[in-house]
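Q: Convert this sequence to structure tokens.
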Amino acid sequence: MKTVSISLNSIDKVKSFVNDLTKFDDDFDLVSGRYVIDAKSIMGIFSLDLSRPINLNIHATENLDKILEVLDPYIIK
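A:
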């Protein structure tokens, strides 16, 4: 599992983020405080405080480099 910090501060960003994640069969969790949400769920994402950075747990072993490349626009560096 790999954890990265991401920013989803607009509706369009959330839509494209979910579309990018659905290309992969792996599991992704968003962690904000004590809440853990399925990162492929638009409704779940909108229940979080999107004004703050959110931790994304990536449960992948094989294609992690490809996933990180696709998620690069959302990752806070």
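Residues 11 and 76 are 18 Å apart (CA to CA).
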